Please model this.
Amino acid sequence: KTNKVNLLACPDDGVTVLHDAVFNNHLAVVKLLTQAGDLDLLQAKTALGKTAGQLAKTNVMSQFINSELKQLQTAHDQENTLRPSQQAYDKLLSRNRRKYYIPMQECEQYLFYISLLVQVYIREHTLIWNNAFISNGKKLCTNCIVDAGCVEKFSQHLANLERHVKLMSGKQNLSQLCQLYITSMKLCISFSYVIQEDVL
Model:
């Protein structure tokens, strides 16, 4: 068992391993560090207020750092959009210093319609995937690769959806019907993967 290395660890001058690798123009090392790190690593500043990107000496290094920073920032913004803060829910549900939660029955109806949409999406996704496989042999079309990428993140979307319903209803435990709809969506995506693996 190995412990995860803290890439933000640094001496008093604030120079991280990424700062050092960028400053010395070790692009291969920088690529490994950015893959292992996150947005905090790229935004970390030295005691003089310099980020790793500001220490780049070549255009290649500067372009790579800026590209990684943009991708991580976009992913970070999307995650925050998908997972609003507790304060955002409190503000939404509060009126006249009271909280008005959504009744569980309405949450059940909400999840019912979402599950129907998911089933339609997965059905269409599977048909498109299979058609692309048949027409292109072992190579998927670009649209299908993007579509498959969305499906891979589906479990995270479901976790966000479940959290959303719990916060909107004010309940830590959802009703059996709500849980049934969420489970059906999980099974739906699992079935889609089975079909794809069988085709391959």
